[in-house]
């Protein structure tokens, strides 16, 4: 059945899609809409591989729409602009993150927190207001309203800037909102993966003291020497965890799989906050007393608004913050997904779309 709006999808596009919950990606020809008056067409140059891509490919959140073209850490170049576009010119370097539209009228939208608009439209695996399903950045181009894209400062290297569009803003926003950024604050970052390692760099740039809590002892050198953390705890080492009890003002938990959070609550000082970012499937096991004694709180946070995303990108450019990446070809993406599932990535895969996608089209 033709979806409403599909007749406007007249521009051919090419990417890689999964057809089912095996998550296996392969070449996929589809179409995108004409560039609207307030929209830009972006030639995708690089796209980061977020763990959320993997969750969606495998339908771990039970909401995947196939065929599914993932990718919401997009850096590209403006290739075409609509008549009313004022923010971008052709050739500008541009970033597109996790959302491409929102209602623009609700309280969240009015407060520049489109990420909490209940009608926001996801960059992929979301249904646009015209009824079409969105396809993400593992593709040659994407069309987006200029209000939902950000400028990439020319001092940022493009490939390692891509992960900032999701991983970067997802760490930056809660640090600021929950008051964990700044001198005199001790922040714990749980899980040293794509989100976690960028989080360490932001927290250090804010002047906070940072302790990484990791399940992988072998990441200690990277955490302390490459990313600048002040401390490193192995989450399974009871002596280390015990010694750090009650020392942290806040913790950002980025772990992508089910794990105990009670020991993390124990690491907090009175009034401390545990912010959950990892979108794990199973509910957590928690005793009320662990929060009551110490007036502690547990919260969640989802990416950030577009204005804050631009602020974060500018801050990253100013402070020289970038992701630690392994650049891969499109052809390698299924192997990369297997490695990501096993935690075998230091610390973000980024697909070189511009140089490696087209050759996979036979
Ligand atoms: P990632 O690169 O795979 O990193 C996750 C890290 O979690 C791993 O490097 C590992 O770090 C740790 N980990 C994984 N499995 C574990 C286990 N069984 N027990 C303990 N630790 C484990 O993933 P990511 O891209 O950073 O994303 C992390 C999570 O955040 C995902 O669930 C993703 O969907 C979610 N996410 C949320 C938002 C948001 O706005 N809320 C935005 C983007 C992504 P160690 O080796 O150091 O333990
Ligand atoms: Zn993401």
Question: What is the helical fraction, as a range of percent?
Answer: 10-25%
Sum up the overall morphology in one term.
Answer: globular
Spatial extent as radius of gyration: 20 Å
Question: Which small-molecule ligands are present, each listed once?
Answer: NADP nicotinamide-adenine-dinucleotide phosphate, zinc ion
CATH topology of the largest domain: Quinone Oxidoreductase, Chain A, domain 1
Q: Tell me the major beta sheet.
A: 7 strands, mixed
Enumerate how many helices there are, as a single number.
12
Whole-Å distance between the termini?
A: 28 Å
The CATH homologous superfamily of the largest domain is termed Medium-chain alcohol dehydrogenases, catalytic domain
Structural class computed from helices and strand pairing: alpha/beta
- Beta percentage is 25-35%
Pfam family, one: ADH_N
Cofactor: Zn(2+)
InterPro entries: ADH-like_C, ADH-like_N, ADH_Zn_CS, CAD-like, ER, GroES-like_sf, NAD(P)-bd_dom_sf
Family: Belongs to the zinc-containing alcohol dehydrogenase family.
Labels describing this entry:
2 domains; binds zinc ion; disordered N terminus; Quinone Oxidoreductase, Chain A, domain 1; globular; Rossmann fold; binds NADP nicotinamide-adenine-dinucleotide phosphate; 362 residues; alpha/beta
């Amino acid at each position: 059945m033709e979806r409403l709006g599909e007749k406007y999808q007249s521009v051919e596009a090419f990417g890689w899609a999964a057809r089912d919950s095996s998550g296996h990606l392969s070449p996929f020809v589809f179409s995108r809409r004409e560039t609207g008056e307030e929209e830009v067409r972006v030639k995708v140059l690089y796209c980061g591989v977020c763990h959320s891509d993997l969750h969606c490919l495998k339908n771990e959140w039970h909401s995947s729409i196939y065929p599914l073209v993932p990718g919401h850490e997009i850096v590209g170049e403006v290739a075409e602009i609509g008549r009313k576009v004022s923010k971008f010119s052709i050739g500008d370097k541009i970033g597109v993150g996790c959302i491409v539209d929102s209602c623009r009228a609700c309280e969240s939208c009015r407060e520049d927190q489109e990420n909490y608009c209940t009608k926001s439209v996801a960059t992929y695996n979301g249904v646009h207001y015209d009824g079409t399903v969105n396809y993400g950045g593992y593709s040659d181009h994407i069309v987006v309203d200029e209000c939902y894209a950000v400028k990439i400062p020319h001092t940022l290297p493009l490939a390692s800037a891509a992960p900032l569009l999701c991983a970067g803003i997802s760490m930056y926003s809660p640090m600021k909102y929950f008051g964990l950024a700044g001198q005199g604050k001790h922040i714990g970052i749980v899980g040293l993966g794509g989100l976690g390692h960028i989080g360490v760099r932001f927290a250090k740039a804010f002047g906070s003291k940072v302790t990484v809590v990791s399940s992988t002892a072998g990441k200690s050198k990277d955490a302390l020497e490459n990313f600048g953390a002040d401390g490193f705890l192995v989450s399974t080492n009871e002596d280390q965890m015990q010694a750090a009890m009650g020392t942290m003002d806040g913790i950002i938990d980025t772990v992508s799989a089910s794990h105990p959070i009670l020991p993390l609550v124990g690491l907090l000082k009175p009034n401390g906050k545990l912010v959950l970012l990892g979108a794990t499937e199973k509910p957590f096991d928690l005793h009320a007393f662990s929060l009551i004694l110490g007036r502690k709180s547990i919260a969640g946070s989802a990416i950030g608004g577009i204005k804050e995303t631009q602020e974060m990108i500018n801050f990253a450019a100013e402070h020289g913050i970038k992701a630690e990446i392994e650049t891969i070809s499109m052809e390698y993406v299924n192997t990369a997904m297997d490695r990501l599932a096993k935690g075998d990535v230091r610390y973000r895969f980024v697909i070189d779309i511009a140089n490696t996608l087209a050759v996979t089209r036979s």
